[in-house]
Fold each of these.
Amino acid sequence: GAPMKALIIDGQNNHDWKTTTPALKQILEETGLFTVDVATSPPAKGDMSTFKPDFAVYRVIISNYNGEPWSKETQDAFEKFVREGGGFVSIHAADNSFPEWKAYNEMIGVGGWGNRNEKSGPYLRLRDGKWVHDTTPGTGASHGAQHAFLVQTREPAHPIMRGLPAEWLHSKDELYDRLRGPAKHVTVLASALATRETRGSGEHEPLLMVISFGKGRVFHTALGHAMEAIRCVGFATTLQRGTEWAATGSVTQKVSANFPTADKVSLRP
């Protein structure tokens, strides 16, 4: 069939969205499954009332946005889109956005910074092979030094993860830790140990997640700080598969032969 329409949102971010958005667009379009538009918000302190993407014409929305609140009209339209069955993909710092927007925080499951704390919801912690809520008071997110780290698959039967290795080495990236939020209807697909040696939490941290919100499907990847991370075949593959799943509920893509192994990073050109 015809490619599905997808929309990347950018325009404000504490990360280099002007470089990363074109790379994300290329990664998605090379699957042949999507045609990707970009909606760029006004800059910080601009007139956000003018930012009104027509979400309804798309199958899936991808956020590369971390900035000022959208207008109430745009927030309501986005919430309606996802709740009624639209797909949503949150990439890296997009989970820092909108700490005061209740529905958005339910969509992403857990998020960071923006003065998030125990009032925002629990941490997700791996205990005896299960992810549990930890309501311990404390900060909402941090990260240690950037480094390559081992990603461990937690739900090998999920369509996004099916056929991926049990462990694979992700290229140099920020390993978000201590994310917290409503943590409702979250399935953790993959995690990584945020080691004390890299100034991490010492815990396994959820990095790839899916969340149900109404009839909508959300794929949340905390990976993708900068181009070295985005060039990782593991990042690109999980983004491609996660976006297809968010849009359709299934995954048709095969796993590439150059997917990273447990001891070797694999980078795209």
Amino acid sequence: PGVVIINDDHKELDSPGTLESIRSAISEFPHVNVLTIIKAHNFDQELTMLKIGVKGVLLENFEQETLIDAIDYVASGGLWHRREIMEKFISEQLFFYKSREAEKNEFTI
């Protein structure tokens, strides 16, 4: 399938079982695009989902057109995450990049 939709089924998304199920699905099918539907925004959990490879997160009670747009976008390889999640992820990656560059420069001097 182009997209696998995982609904939290009104369970706590931060339960190890849910995240482990997502990790398993992504590791077994690395080319599948996962879109997760959650009950409520949880910054840390959404960031974790992005880091483990979830391509999109939707808050339940979405409009039908939003679901269709999200599926189409994720199926084409795009990311469907809140801006705050993406900004935090990019900031972390830039920090790690700058740290690695600084270490390289220390060793070349």
